[in-house]
Amino acid sequence: MKYSLDLDEALGDDVRRIAAGRLTEAAGLLRKQPDGRDKAIHDARRHVKQCRSLYRLVASGAKDFHKAENRRLGDIGRRLSALRDATALIEATQFLKREISSKSNGMLMDRLAKRLDQRRESITGQTDAVADVLASARHDLLEAAKAADDLSLPHSGRKSATCLARGWETTGRKAREALEDCASGHEEAFHDLRKRTQDRWMHAALLNDLWPTALRAIQHQGKALSDMLGHAQDLAILLDAVSGPGELVSDAVESEAIREAVLTQQAKLHDECRDLGAILFGKSKPRDGRMIVKLLELR
User: Fold this and answer.
1) H or E segment to which residue 222 belongs
2) Collapsed DSSP state (helix, strand, coil) of residue 87
3) Out of 220, 226, 248, 277, which residue is the most buried by the measure of CB atoms under 10 Å away?
4) First to last CA, the chain
């Protein structure tokens, strides 16, 4: 199903259609797992994120609905993340191996990846526990899909346009606030920036038909920044994992080598993310909302 609003249709009808479709498809992926469990969880999480972003775009027109469903979908996402993070840590070691191309670092990351794979198997090998998590997520996804029918949005073209413009402006404002906070170097600020960046490129996809050339460029810029921020976030999770108790590192020397590799790449990524964020959101001002309203009025 296309992740784009049909701007010639009533806003409420189209949002309900997209939301129910994404959530139902996510539940189906978790049940059928056509390309394996890890891929099913990854794709289901993506559908949940797309639905949350869709709801944020129209949040000003249905505040109570958005608050309730954002909470529900956030809880589903966190449950699935616990299963996904074990795989993300292995991918983080592969990223570090590519970025630091020394023989010693390659051997270090290979050893760490092997231990992380064993850790993942011990977590996901608890078949009954994983099955319970996926079953509860499927149930809640289907309930959320049903709840989409309860969403009520403005009917008039003018009010619908204002609703969409406010959603776009809110994302830009929150992104600029997160970008300012990133100057502190705190990982939470970069995490917030990633969430708003994901919203930006997803909102651009949803509104693509308004101005395809410009909005596709925003999608590409936003996706690139989101991926970069995702690498930084995975490195932060990896650092926490190797810093805690367990058997992921053999000694203090190995621990310090991993820590140095992570922090070096994190610093590089953070600098690049701040630069790209300034490009993507620096020109994002309230006037963007007025432009959206005008473009919708011209249809």
Assistant:
1) helix 212-243
2) helix
3) 277
4) 23
Instruction: Give me the count of residues in the chain.
Output: 299
Domains and CATH numbers, the chain: 11-297 (1.40.20.10)
d(CA 290, CA 180): 24
pLDDT digits (tens, 9 = 90+) for 245-297: 778 888 888 999 999 999 999 999 999 999 999 999 986 565 688 888 988 88
Under 8 Å between Cβ of 27 and 229: no
7 in helix, strand or coil? coil
Rounded Cα distance, 281 and 50, in Å:
20
Name residue 289's amino acid. Answer: G
As a whole number of angstroms, the distance between CA 96 and CA 79 comes to: 27
State the pTM of this model: 0.93
pLDDT tens, position by position, 107-120: 999 999 999 998 88
Q: Round to whole Å and give the CA distance between 261 and 263.
A: 6
